[in-house]
Amino acid sequence: MHMAMASDAPGNEFRLGMLIYDTRYRSLTIQVIVLILFGLAVAWLLNNTVQNLEAKGRTFNYGFLWQRAGYDIQQQLIPYTNDSTHFRALLVGLMNTLVVAILGCIGATIVGIIVGVLRLSKNWLVSKLMTIYVEIFRNIPLLLWILFIFVPLGELAPNPTDFRVTEEMQAAGEEPRASMILFDTVAITARGVNAPYPLLERPLGTVDVAGIPFNLSVLAFLAVVGASFYANSLIRRRARAVQEATGVRPVIWWKSLLILFAPAIVFLWALGFHLEVPELTRFNFSGGVLVQNSFIALLIALILYTGAFIAEIVRAGILAVSKGQTEAAFALGLRPNRTMSLIILPQALRVIIPPLISQFLNLTKNTSLGIAVSYLDLRGTLGGITLNQTGRELECMLLMMLIYLIISLIISSLMNIYNRSVRLKER
Amino acid sequence: MKRSVFFGALTVAGLAAGASAAATLDEVKARGELICGSNTGLAGFGAPDASGNWQGFDVALCKALGASVLGDATKVRFVPTTGETRFTALASGEVDVLIRNSTWTLTRDTELAFDFVAVNYYDGQGFMVKRDLGVSSAKELDGATVCIQTGTTTELNLADFFKSNNMTYTPVNVADDSEAQRQYLAGACDAYTTDASGLAASRATMPDPGSHVILPEIISKEPLGPVVRHGDNNWGDVVRWTYYALLTAEEKGITAANVEEVAASSTDPEVRRLLGVEGDMGAKLGLDPDAFKRAIAAVGNYGEVFEANVGEATPIGLARGLNALWTQGGLQYAPPFR
After folding, report:
1. Which residues of A touch B189 (CB under 8 A)?
2. How many domains does chain A fold into?
3. Torsion of CA B116, B120, B126, B132, to 10 degrees
4. From the list A51, A190, A374, which residue is nearest B186 (CB)?
5. B117 and B229 belong to one structural domain
6. pLDDT digit string (tens) for A33-61?
7. In sequence order, what DSSP letters do the residues of B306-336 get, joined into one string?
8. Domain of B233: which CATH number?
9. How many cross-chain Cβ pairs, A to B, lie less than 8 Å apart?
10. Most CB within 10 Å of its CB: which of A268, A291, B103, B226?
């Protein structure tokens, strides 16, 4: 009976109408149609672009990247002159983007966690102050914050020439209109902050990898510091083992101090470490390092703006941990600080990290606003000067979008790996 | 089958798009409005005045063009463009013509696919510094910080100048003239460099013009002129000859005030052809016979435009110099209206 019913059922043989009327095929049909329409739309866009470029007598190629750039860039983290190629200028811009993005993410996270925790403080004044900070920064466009910080930096600080002491001024016993701070090592001017720069008398040299020089002295110094920390962790582990075996923790603080600082100090002394203090020349301070106002303004604005959003995420994460956890911790005799760091925050991280990723991505993309304050990042070099000098709008824009896309994908995949490590382990 | 029909349709659409982009004159006439790419605000050359009306040396040429093509100098819409956005705006068809202190270079002529149809201002790049800095020559600027508008030829000239003189500098790349002025005045840079005419215009709008010096060195040739898209030769001719009409008017002594009277009384055959009294000069370009007469009546001749906007009687105070007529030792020279 069953068999007969099945074989008698209509639809055993396939008819075209079934693509629409048969629920088994309908969704497939719709998907195929949508896919075809989407493909046609993309093809039309590409075709239209190619046709219009041809009609304008323009070609599409990236050969210009290997031509001489011809322009100068203020902040260079890798060597660059106006004889370098446009590609090199792109790399310089990319470095400038990355340095703001990385420092910004770190700073915004620190600000966000502190403010997020303080917003839940029982102290009325502290929690209200934090609320005001969050609401002010969240609700005013980032570009305005960047300009709001940048303009006073330039307008209020003295010019480099204000630091000059002429012979007439000495004779008259006059003071210069401005002077350096921190034992005459740091000068704050309308252009930026001139700070001392660490130099070595006997440096280890550099190694070029793909045109980007790596300073061996810095790498060696980092290796020494890393080794010190590792050695210190060994000492602490032994102390813990002794404590567990005998119940008495040996005194190790002087060993830790020695092992953490002595090797680094000896290393720096051996290489002849000294600071190069900026000195006033004809127009500017030379020597030392100049941290530009545009960089400072962009970084501070990004940190404070994104920090406000992260604070809300942190607060939400903490509130998501049930109150019973806190009460249980208190019942065990843990103090509030330890409760927060050992019980609440680790659990809150599971809620915090996914939205935190999008804040990091936002911050990274927002670095492109640096053009408003003359900060030459990727948008300023590739998407600004190179684009304009070569007239290759389409090529530059596509390349720039691709690079931002890759940066964002790298950030989110790194954060996803971290997220996997802290999420709830289900066994 | 269906695929080939589809792609055939695409090809037609693409070709149609290409063809329509080529006939700017017809588009402007059909629209009844000329869209002119202008400066975001450079006093004397192109800037809105207190009541929001665009005024200036470059703006006057736009208005003359509006008068010759549409018969009305007010039917011009000005689109402010920065050094960075101007060429994209022109290439994409957002503006019909770009009259905005743009330097004629080989690369812009070829790779950017534009045509510079004339030179309405012969300029060169200079430097401005504060007087109390005690600098009297650009060669003394070694180690200085220099403000520069991004996306301009001046950016490249600056790099070349310092390199050939074995000097170093720190660039501060700013988006437009007003931001450059603000940063220069705030002390973010020691010197501001752009076209000498632009420096004079900027200085005129500063609170204390006397405390700034324009250094004597001119480090480049900056022929500034109107730009159109490459390939639309008829539209290029319209812009070029409207400009030459203003030049010829100065040469022949025709002014905004006397143009009607000259048209009625003149016996000079070239003047009669220029003003459309005889011949078909306008028709050859697809314009009305009296197109150039309207342009001259709207803004005056080249000399009048110069003196009214940037000349020595204005705060900007530029001398004619290279921009005098060829008959007075300058470079401004119009081919014959014949």
Report:
1. 191
2. 3
3. -140
4. A190
5. yes
6. 999 999 999 999 988 888 888 877 777 88
7. HHHHTSTTSSS----GGGSBGGGTSSB----
8. 3.40.190.10
9. 138
10. B226
